[in-house]
Amino acid sequence: MNRKTIFLIASALVMFNCAFPANRDGMRVTDFKAPKKVGDKIYINESVGGSITLPFWISKISDEEFTAAVKESVAAAGLFETLEEQFGNNWHLKIEIVDVDRPYFGTTFTVKTKIKYTLSKGTQVISELLVDESGEATMGDAIFGVKRLRLANENSARANIKKFLEEVSKMQVKAPGKK
């Protein structure tokens, strides 16, 4: 083989094996509508605990993309009237990505996400939910492992967000001071 052929093969391997982060479109929940509104305005903090994806490593879930997916999912579900851009004395959501358990090789990738959601109204913590959900992607979803892992990350994150939305929609919130 000549140098040009080796360079082209090496370039193709690099291009097809670059890891891409889970993105908000893949993590966003679009198939859940809340039966009733929980509250009026909510401020959602940027999540903590996520990781950036390095090009030659493995797909990960970033705080920025996960937070955007949660915001878009909350808005689409209709749990709250509006999303606030600044922290106020209304509803407030803190998100912590506690653990993302992902495989490094295989034909079917199953990713498990454990995420803690803390929902407050003013200074009162209304609910702390630790949601542990998984998602998978198979060879039928993607031949290349790096893409399959990204899809499994997104499927797991979407399942996690959906479980959070379902749990919040079941809450019975009483006005402060009432029993």
Care to describe what's here?
This protein has 179 residues and is α/β, with parallel strands linked by helices. It has a single domain, classed as Rossmann fold (3-Layer(aba) Sandwich), CATH 3.40.50.10610. 32% of the residues lie in helices and 27% in strands. The protein contains 4 helices and 5 strands; from the N terminus they run ααβαββββα. Strands 2-1-3-4-5 form a 5-stranded mixed β-sheet. Helix 3 packs across helix 4. The longest helix has 25 residues. The N and C termini lie far apart (80 Å). This is DUF4410 domain-containing protein. It comes from Leptospira dzoumogneensis.
Q: Secondary structure elements and their pairing?
A:
Elements: H1 3-16, H2 24-27, E1 39-44, H3 63-77, E2 80-84, E3 91-101, E4 109-121, E5 124-137, H4 145-169
Parallel strand pairs: 1-2, 1-3
Antiparallel strand pairs: 3-4, 4-5
Fill in the keyword field for this structure.
Rossmann fold; alpha/beta; 5 strands; 179 residues; 27% strand; elongated; 5-stranded mixed beta sheet; 32% helix
SSE string, helices as H and strands as E: HHEHEEEEH
On the 0-100 scale, what is the average pLDDT?
87
How many domains, as an integer? 1
Give the overall silhouette: elongated
CATH class: Alpha Beta
Structural class determined from secondary elements: alpha/beta
Strand tally is 5
Evaluate the radius of gyration: 19 Å
Named CATH architecture: 3-Layer(aba) Sandwich
Provide a short characterization of the protein structure.
The chain is an alpha/beta fold and 179 residues long. The chain is 32% helix and 27% strand. α3 crosses α4 (145-169).
